[in-house]
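Tokens for YCII-related domain-containing protein. Go.
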Amino acid sequence: MRFLMTTKPTDAAPDEKLFAEMGAFIEELTAAGVLLATGGLEPGGVRLVSSGDEITVTDGPYAEAKEAVAGFALVEVRSKEEAIELARRFRRIVGDGESVVQQVFGP
């Protein structure tokens, strides 16, 4: 089962300890074959909305920067519970904030 784990930005500035802990966590998940992809996302982006034959493109999909998704990890695990546990471990490393875990369907 694949799950997309996303996190929203916070005001906390990363430090060397955070970088070291996240590096170790990412290495562990990569070595276990669980981590398929990870990365940070630009705060802006573009939004496309379609209605009939018309497609409107506007700057930024979010009204406020705090609503944006700051980063993601795509994992392949045996269960939703395992994905939630990985997200819990992530939150313990990075501290206060918000993450979302969603199952990815399809091939």
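Helices lie at 16-31, 80-94.
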